[in-house]
Amino acid sequence: MDPDVDDGIVVEPLSPDEARVPTRAARSGARYVVASVGLSLLVAVYVVGAYLQGARANTDINAADQSAYIDYAIGIAETGFNHLGDRNRMPVFPFLASFLYDAELTEQQFFERGKLFNIGLSIVLLFALYGLQRLYWPAFESAVVTLIASFTIFIYFAPYFTAEVLFYFANFCLFVTLWEMLTRPRLWLAVAGGVIAGLAYLTKASVPPALLAFGVFFVARTAVAYRWPHRDSPTEDGAASAPSPVARLAMLGVFAATFLGIIGPYLMTSKEVFGRYFYNRPTTFYMWYDSWDEVLAGT
Predict the structure, then answer these.
(1) What is d(CA 135, CA 290) in angstroms, rounded to the nearest whole number?
(2) How confident is the model over 154-172, as pLDDT tens digits?
(3) Cβ neighbours of residue 96 under 8 Å, at least 6 residues apart?
(4) Per residue in 186-221, pLDDT tens?
(5) Sign of torsion over alpha carbons 168, 170, 171, 172
(6) How far apart, in Å, do the first and last CA atoms of the chain sit?
(7) Which terminal Cβ of the chain has fewer Cβ within 10 Å, N or C?
(8) What stretch of H or E contains 5?
(9) Is residue 274 a contact partner of residue 87, using CB atoms and an 8 Å limit?
(10) Using CA atoms, how far apart are residues 249 and 72, in angstroms rounded to an integer?
């Protein structure tokens, strides 16, 4: 095969074997196309499955406490976000759902709109869940865990007018943050953890026991770091020294102050109206009852 000549420069043609070898850019582009198509199919399957779950299994507004969430969201929308609530459900999800409300909607139409909103919200949260895992794991492991969460948990709870999907994500973020605080405490992480803890608590009121346990373990780890400093983990930048015990306790204080700052207005209202800062109907009443008749008679 004769070489080509261009302006005096001899250009050797590619052999048949070399011509068949794809370039790195071509291989990368092909993988991107395959990944995009696969992801689109998975999202489509998820959306269809969640929609069918809502259309066939979740048709009763009164099931799974949904009517109470609907009333809460309507109350927030109609009172200019000054609705008190009954301290049985927390305000974050009803607050988000209140933006969907229109006075011309019937309760059933608002119910259906809320289910679709929660399905869309669950997709956003699943992508965020994958991104959070990628900070620690490779892409394959992160994708596997996200798919498991998608098709064994989220797909069933997404088409409900409840806060479960949002709380599962917030609680996972809180767990990761608390673990990071235990292993590598940093000031910015204490602030972020306080914000996440506050939002998780305002989504569902089951967070305080975990925070108390975290505080106990954090103080215990601080004591260990003080007694045996050589056993402590290095700092994020690889330095040999970790935060001092005083710095650790200061970060714990920042965490607590940020958490209380986020939920402070809610606590003050609870104290003013119900007599206690951390007032919650399920832990105050419902967990002690043995039957629904006792619930009706007691509250």
Answers:
(1) 45
(2) 999 999 999 999 999 999 9
(3) 117, 121, 166
(4) 999 999 999 999 999 999 998 999 999 999 999 998
(5) positive
(6) 93
(7) N
(8) strand 4-6
(9) yes
(10) 39
Q: How far apart are CA 86 and CA 280, in angstroms?
A: 9
Q: HSE (CB half, 13 Å, CA atoms) of 270?
A: 19
Global pTM reads 0.83
Neighbours of 82 (CB within 10 A): 8
Copy the structure tokens of residue 70: 């609907």
Q: State the residue for tokens 């198509």.
A: 37
Amino acid found at 172: F
Contact 251, 185 (CB under 8 A): yes
Residue type, 71: D
Which amino acid makes up residue 179? W
Q: How far is CA 281 from CA 62, 108, 143, 251, in A?
A: 19, 27, 39, 32
| Distinct helix (H) and strand (E) counts, the chain | 13, 2
Backbone angles phi and psi of 233, in degrees to 5: -80, 150
Distance from chain centroid for Cα 5? 62
Whose CA is closest to 172, among 205, 207, 223, 202? 207
Looking at the DSSP bridge assignments, the partners of residue 6 are: 9
DSSP 3-state of 197: helix
Which pair of tokens denotes residue 219? 């103080």
Question: Token digits for 146?
Answer: 């996200």
**How many residues can be counted in the chain?**
299
Give, to the nearest 10 degrees, the angle between helix 245-274 and helix 187-203: 20
Instruction: Write down the residue that tokens 């007032």 correspond to.
Output: 279
Q: How far apart are CA 289 and CA 117, in angstroms?
A: 34
Q: With beta carbons less than 8 A apart as the criterion, state whether 98 and 119 touch.
A: no
Contact, 121 vs 157, CB < 8 A?
Answer: no
CA–CA distance, 137 with 122 (Å, rounded to integer): 22
